[in-house]
Design brief:
By secondary structure, the chain is an alpha+beta fold. It has 17 helices and 11 strands. The structure holds zinc ion.
Length: 455
């Protein structure tokens, strides 16, 4: 086999010998996330083993142990390593699968949004709503989710709900922990809180010179389920002279009555700015960097954005992108699935393993995402009945695979995906095309550099 790396070395920018770059994260830093999520998945698998859930342990342990990547032409930028084939476990709590599931949904939305907004024309905006219920005991979570779903159904069937032309609604469940400070002989109870609040508290605590080793964190049997919803409205919705506008109080009353509860549930509503169009100065590299820093996977279509041609997403604001990403994130934060911050099991033996197994039973076959109105219409061809490996691979028709395959295997000791082999096919045939594209890209890069450096 010829070594394709040498013949194409300028093109894939390998600054060292391929033997040195033996891991996926070396060859493609943006794919370091594969290692990160696989590590989480392994921890989760271990939890299931401890809970005697042999089937889930086996399935998650074998999730994506092999990855086949191809070099793919993605348009203006240098080609990227793209996943071409892999086998996934599809266990709802597998972190690797959750990550890919979330990317799948984002990809779908970023695919339909430009078309939907173009079809609609001007005069529409989005709002982002978070609807919560009171915290519930973990063993009642299933019942609680059922009631929330029934409440949403009642809400969305109300006549005035027709104001919302499209919606997508996702379920998130967060955990609460009991925090103690063990500075003296009697532990001091700091409070019961979720991870976000805990980290806020910890920041203050450490800033004041506190010692983290004296903080004890226990799991609780309390869950906090809530909905995130992205809704499309006409501009007229915000016209105070018309009665369409749902003020915060209106949302609260509607959600409370739909839930049929006697307490005031917590509701957050915010408008999504649709006109802070992605600044022209943002480069493709900025977007890639953002995706690396935040774990936000930026869709291919955005990577294609260039300064030379009008953006295919010209009507999509960065706020809207953020809201879509926010709506379609994990159902449970990875840190919550394994209870990362927990330092001690409860005195009755309740620990992270028991939490995960109970949670798994409670959410078994519950619906995590629902769409309605125009979203349902535009998504209908993209949604599949049963989730498959292909759904996680993305759109493989976009761009060309450039005749090189990289085969990676999960390496348990180093906790990284390791390159096992490189295969080529039709390289000679593709070479001219590759060179041509490379030259084109180089010219574009020079042009961009000139632009940014004012040359
Ligand atoms: Zn999996």
């Amino acid at each position: 086999m010829i070594n394709p790396i040498h013949s194409l070395s300028d093109f894939i920018q390998l600054d060292q010998d391929i033997q040195v770059k033996e891991y996926l994260s070396d060859l493609s830093p943006r794919d370091k996330l594969w290692d990160t999520h696989k590590i989480y998945s392994q921890k989760i698998a271990e939890f299931y083993k401890a809970a005697d859930n042999e089937p889930y342990f086996n399935r998650i342990s074998n999730c994506a142990n092999y990855l086949l990547f191809g070099l793919k032409d993605v348009g203006e930028e240098d080609p990227l390593l793209k996943l071409a084939a892999a086998h996934f476990c599809h266990v709802p709590q597998c972190q690797l699968c959750n990550w890919l599931r979330s990317r799948m949904w984002r990809r779908r939305f970023f695919k339909i949004l430009p078309k939907m907004l173009t079809d609609l024309g001007e005069g529409y905006q989005f709002i982002f709503v978070t609807l919560t219920v009171r915290n519930c005991p973990l063993q009642n979570l299933r019942e609680q989710l059922k009631e929330m779903s029934a409440a949403w159904k009642r809400l969305s069937e109300r006549k005035d709900f027709l104001t919302f032309k499209a919606f997508t609604r996702t379920t998130e469940v967060t955990r609460n922990y009991d925090i103690y400070y063990h500075g003296s002989s009697v532990p001091q109870f700091i409070g019961r809180m979720g991870t976000r609040k805990y980290y806020d508290w910890l920041y203050q605590f450490l800033s004041a010179g506190g010692d983290k080793n004296l903080v004890q964190i226990y799991p609780t049997k309390e869950a906090h389920p809530h909905y995130h919803a992205l809704l499309l409205v006409e501009d007229a919705y915000f016209d105070k002279n018309q009665s369409k506008y749902w003020q915060h109080k209106r949302w609260l009353d509607e959600w409370q009555s739909a839930l049929r509860v006697d307490y005031k549930p917590s509701v957050h509503v915010k408008a999504v700015k649709t006109f802070d169009v992605i600044p022209q100065e943002i480069s493709i590299q900025d977007i890639i960097n953002l995706s690396l820093e935040t774990d936000f996977d930026i869709p291919d279509v955005l990577l294609k954005k260039s300064l030379d041609s009008p953006s295919p997403l010209k009507d999509i604001s960065s706020s809207l992108i953020k809201s879509v990403l926010e709506t379609l994130k994990y159902c449970v934060k990875p840190a919550d699935i394994i209870g990362e911050i927990v330092t001690h099991p409860c005195s009755d033996g309740f620990d992270n393993v028991k939490w995960l197994q109970e949670f798994t039973d409670q959410v078994y076959r519950t619906r995590k995402i629902a769409t309605g109105g125009l979203f349902k219409f535009y998504l209908k061809d993209l949604e599949s009945e049963k989730e498959t490996d292909a759904d996680f691979l993305g759109d493989r028709s976009e761009g060309d695979f450039l005749g090189i395959e990289y085969f990676f295997q999960w390496h348990n000791q180093v906790q990284k995906y390791k390159l096992k082999s490189v295969n080529t096919f039709d390289v000679d045939e593709k070479n001219d095309k590759v060179k041509e594209k490379h030259e084109f890209r180089q010219a574009r890069k020079d042009k961009l550099n000139k632009f940014f450096n004012g040359g």
